[in-house]
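Students often ask what a 'structure token' actually looks like in practice. Rather than answer in the abstract, let us consider Delta(1)-pyrroline-2-carboxylate reductase, a protein of 341 residues. Its sequence is given first.
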Amino acid sequence: MTTKEDQLNPAASAAVTPPIFISTSTLQSLITHKSLIHHLQSTLPTLSPTIHSPIRHAHQTSPSSSLLLMPSWSLSPSLPYVGIKLVTYYPNNSTLNLPGVQAIYMLFNSLIGQPLASIDATELTYYRTACVSALASFYLSREDSETLLMIGAGSLAPHLIRAHLSVRPGVKKVIIWNRTGEKARIMAEKMSNESDFLEVRFQSNGCNLEELVKEGDIISCATNSEIPLVKGVDLKAGTHLDLVGSFKNSMKECDDEAIRRGRVFVDNEAALTEAGELVGAFERGIITKDEIAGDLVGLIKGEKPKRKSSEEITVFKSVGSAVVDLLSAQLVYENYMKSGQ
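Now compare that with the structural description of the same chain:
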């Protein structure tokens, strides 16, 4: 059997077996949201400077669909990998009961270029996206947060809920809102039966979104909306707003008032040019780029104050990055090799 050491050693790698395939079910056996959050927290500050990550390629394949290519590589002995994620974005798939985002991740040895693994990255993307949000929430949301409002009931939503609850175990109530109320109801019922959440009360829609926003201590949005769903006037003091869905200028999950009232952080600087909520706010003079409080690595390193008070509203906008993809793929691959599967 090929060992991890064999696949990372150029001399030993010359005649090794073909790349492995890591399916969704295998990936789920290799990592948890908590383990990936811990991995990102410990590796992002030290390894991200060693990673080369060009601007992602985005291609419109039809009026409603996109293809994204996200490459990255590192020559660090601690991270000897080249990786690329190929992503398709088909928002209309929800009508077919299929994921709107699907992806594959290819991992190579960066010393000799040998293919190491092909990873079902649809699930990997859900894990890494949710864990980035939760890691930011660890620094920005109130420790005494009790109510999580999940806006959107797509495939990413359960991951966001699990990840947020892993860093804020004091949350007692999760409200799921979706334009199609039945999807929210089904998800709430399913998650309420998970053994890890027996002490958490799940509910769905119930009343209009504006009223639910007023209730949330942590609000996580994962939609493809082009119309603001969260209005800043409805945010109560001390709320943490997590914006995940938008990755192009036409998309936005909150209005300008939410950006104006909040202290805004991003996962990386690409959000400044890709996130519709921020690009629009810059254009209209709501805030300037200099007023963005910091990024995720800065939060982890303590370069910027996290939450300043229990009354402060914080906003975290993520658009994803190939750096986090590579670090997430590293954990999956190395855990696979250690498992002896």
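One point worth highlighting: Confidence is low (pLDDT under 50) at residues 10-14. Ask yourself how you might have guessed this from the sequence alone, and why that guess would often be unreliable.
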